[in-house]
Automatic annotation (TrEMBL):
This is Sigma-54 dependent transcriptional regulator. Residues 139-368 form the Sigma-54 factor interaction domain. Signal peptide: none annotated. It comes from Candidatus Thalassospirochaeta sargassi. One of its GO terms (molecular function) is ATP binding. Gene3D superfamilies: 1.10.8.60, 3.40.50.2300, Homeodomain-like, P-loop containing nucleotide triphosphate hydrolases.
Length: 457
């Protein structure tokens, strides 16, 4: 049944509404003021809010505005003991489902609650349908690698087996994950994505498991994590090999037990989530280097799927080009409808270091900028680059040295290299080396100790 949140500063009203709603099998939450009510919306899934107009700290109309701004799918029934026509009209214009005057008619509030929760369910279903239409893309291609991937997706989608997707950036790992979810029995429930590489180590646990108010500096309210948001559905852990070892240990426990605690809480919460993970790293090398837990790998790698680079399935390039042009015609007013045979041949021969993502971006760019009905090899070459060498990344040798390191590791390694260079230039004279670095000798001594640098006499 639906979850209802009652926000009213009168304990008696909250108690009465809780009783009548629970008698109808609703799950009921309540708050004595608007601030607490808004906090609960961040931590719980709510389908209907029954909101008093006159509240301490923040008025009901302002709370209504905030709800409709942040949670437009949630219906709000306004109640007030000081009702007037102008206030009712204002509330409805702001998006309220209806307006009731105290003392409340219990029959009417129940009728409105049934109608409002039904409307919420309709909105939610409509949103899911739109989302499924938008993400209806599937793997385009007829090559042997793509045929095997599609076969694996079809065989595994109906189960709850964990899946580990590997492949370079831009190959379509997320597309595979969404296709699995769409074909699973969980397709009416959320598909929640977490980019583990984009979240700082200090925040990854809060992002995954949620946190309580005051759990750490900046935790101004409760927050649900991605595991809770994905309950009943699929959680996609993208770039999973970029998680810290401590976060990996906690994720392993949750995967094993399907229960966890929010950061700052001792209350255990249960979830039912299917896990799909992906990485662009050599996971076996990461395990060998001590960067990824082998036991977590075995938990995730129940069904392995490797997505090959575009250069390993060049025969699919014409199909992808045709598909992306058709998609552009749906959304953009473009002239081009196809590429010349010579242009197609050139694109097939190109290395595509950015894989399918690079190809898609190229098609969008050239079809928007070109005025040709049939894009010539000259035009394609102009927007792609006249030679493969022009398109390949030219990496500075110094940057290349740090390319596989995390930022903190690269910063420390660069600092160590610079210190060694300055010490050698100044014949290991601490005072002169410190002056050339623009720091105090005492600071240099500290860094020498930190990086275990040997001082040559």
């Amino acid at each position: 049944m639906a979850n209802i949140l009652v926000i009213d500063d009168e304990p008696g009203i909250r108690s009465v509404l809780r009783d009548i709603f629970e008698d109808e099998s609703y799950n009921v939450f309540d708050a004595g003021d608007g601030i607490r009510g808004l906090e609960m919306l961040e931590s719980e899934i709510i389908h209907l809010v029954v909101l008093d107009v006159w509240l301490p700290n923040i008025g009901g109309i302002d709370v209504l505005k905030k709800i409709k701004e942040d949670y437009p799918e949630i219906e709000v029934i306004i109640i007030s003991g000081h009702a007037n026509i102008d206030l009712a009209v204002k509330a409805v214009k702001l998006g309220a489902f209806d307006f009731l005057e105290k003392p409340l008619s219990l029959d009417k509030i129940l009728t409105l609650a049934r109608n409002a929760t039904a409307m919420n369910a309709l909105k939610t279903e409509n949103k899911k349908l739109k989302s499924s239409v938008i993400s209806e893309e599937t793997m385009i291609g007829e090559s042997e690698p793509i045929r095997l991937i599609k076969q694996t997706i079809n065989q595994s989608a109906g189960s709850d087996a964990k899946i580990l997707i590997t492949g370079d950036n831009g190959t379509g790992k997320e597309l595979v994950a969404r296709d699995i979810h769409r074909k699973s029995q969980r397709n009416t429930k959320p598909f929640i994505e977490v980019n583990c590489a984009a979240i700082p180590d200090t925040l990854i646990e809060s992002e995954l498991f949620g946190h309580e108010k005051g759990a750490f500096t900046g935790a101004l309210s409760q927050r649900r994590g991605k595991f809770e948001s994905a309950d009943g559905g699929t959680l996609f852990l993208d770039e999973v090999a970029d998680m810290s070892l401590s976060a990996q240990a906690k994720v392993l426990r949750v995967i094993q037990e399907m229960r966890f605690e929010r950061v700052g809480s001792e209350e255990t919460r249960k979830v039912d989530v299917r896990i799909i993970a992906a990485t662009n790293k050599d996971i076996h090398q990461e395990i060998a280097d001590g960067n990824f837990r082998e036991d977590l790998y075995f938990r995730l790698n129940v069904v392995p799927i490797h997505v090959p680079p575009l250069s390993d399935r060049r025969g699919d390039i014409p199909l992808l080009i045709e598909y992306f042009i058709q998609e552009m015609h749906k959304t953009e007013n473009i002239t081009a409808s196809e590429f010349s045979p010579e242009a197609i041949d050139m694109l097939i021969d190109y290395s595509w270091p950015g894989n399918v993502r690079e190809l898609k971006n190229f098609i969008e760019r050239v079809t928007i900028m070109s005025e040709e009905d049939v894009i010539s090899v000259e035009t394609a070459s102009k927007f792609l680059g006249s030679s493969e060498e022009k398109q390949e990344k030219i990496i500075n040798p110094l940057i290349e040295k740090f390319s596989d390191m995390k930022l903190s590791e690269a910063r420390d390694e660069f600092e160590r290299m610079l210190l060694l260079q300055k010490l050698e230039e100044n014949e290991y004279n601490i005072t002169r080396a410190a002056q050339s670095l623009g720091i105090y000798p005492s600071n240099l001594h500290g860094k020498i100790k930190k990086f275990d640098i040997e001082i040559k006499k």
